Sequence to fold (272 residues):
Amino acid sequence: MADYIKFVDVTKCDGCRACMVACKNWNDLPAEFEDFQGSYQSHEKITANTWNVLTFNEQENSDGDFDWLFRHSSCLHCVQAACEKACPEDAISHTEFGSVVIDADKCVGCGYCVQNCTFDVVKLATYQDKNGKEYKKAQKCTLCTDRLEQGLQPACVTACHTECLIYGDKAEILAEAEKRLANIKERYPNANIYNPQGIDGTMTVYLLADKPAVYGLPEDPKIPLSQVVWKDYAQPIGKAMLGATTMAVIGAVISNSFLKKKDPEQGGHDHD
Fold:
C-alpha cells in the first residue's frame, strides 16, 4: 500500500466548492448544467464528467440549532477495489500511489465497474468516433495521479483553503486525524474516522461528524465473494485454459500441415 493518503475533514469544510472547480479545470472536464433541485447543492451526484461533488446535509444539533454537514464526495480509491475485481479486461489497476485508475485504451465500456463500485462513483461517458458512432468509456477521479507523478498534490487539495483536504504521509495524517477526532467529540458525539477495513481501507480517509449513513456512505463495505472468486481464481484459470486450448489448436494445424507436405498423395483417398 502507498505511504501517502488523502484526508478529508468534513468539519472544516465551508462549502466553497473550490475543489469541484479545481477538478474540472485540471482534468478538462466539460460543464454540466442541471435543473435547480431546491437546495444549495450544485449537482445531484457524481457523473462521468463531474468527478467530485460537494454534498450538503442540514442536521439539527444537540443545541436545537442547525448544522451544515458537507462532504467532499469523490472516488475513495479502495485498497480492495470492487471495480477492479469486476473488470473483465484488466482495464482498472492500482498505481504506485495507491490510486485506482482506468486505462481508456483497454476499457470496452461494458459497465461492470459501474454496477459493482462500492461507492457509486464510476460512471460511463459517451463519445463519438470519427464516423459519428457512439461508444462508452468508464471514467472517475484519478486522485490526480498525473500530478502526483510530477511531485504535485491533487488539484482539489491545492485549492482547499480550510485544510479540509490534506494529502501527505499516511502515518502523520492518521495521527492528525485522531487528534482532530478527539477535539470535536464533544460537539459531534457520533464523529468517527471512516477508513473501512472490510475493503482493507481506502486512500481517501474521512473524518465524519456523524455516522457514515448520514453522508450516504456504507457502514462496513466488503468485496462480494463472487467478485473475489471471479477475478482472483476463475478468470486467471479461464485464461490459462483458453491459452492451452489455443496452443493445442495451433499445434494441430501446424502438425496437420506438416504431414500433408510430407505425403502430398494422402488426402481423402483410400489406397489399395
In short: Confidence is low (pLDDT under 50) at residues 247-255, 257-272.
